[in-house]
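Database export, one record per block. Field names are fixed; values are copied verbatim from the stored entry.
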Amino acid sequence: MALEITDSNFEELIGESEKPAMLDFWAPWCGPCRMIAPYVEEMSKEFDEKAIIGKVDVDNNPEIAGKYGIRNIPTVLFIKSGKVVDKQVGLCPKQVLENKLIALL
């Protein structure tokens, strides 16, 4: 299951982690976010030991969303060594997300 990333646990879980991270910025009222959610959950199982897969509810965590300038959702950020190295804005096939994450491993 994807980790719930919040303003309070972000640094602890993501911070300067050695593992790459994929963060899905979403909101419960967002239709495309609900469509991408199963991909994120599947990938959390597939990449369990290799990467951190998390979800950030933008309504409840405005600090993280603001830090990364999230203006459209869903937005998926790919983070390595504390820096955003890639992103995907909007709905996309699961393969697009997988390819971007595999490139960081």
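Remark 1: Residues 3-102 form a domain with the Glutaredoxin fold (CATH 3.40.30.10).
Remark 2: The first helix runs from residue 10 to 13.
End of record.
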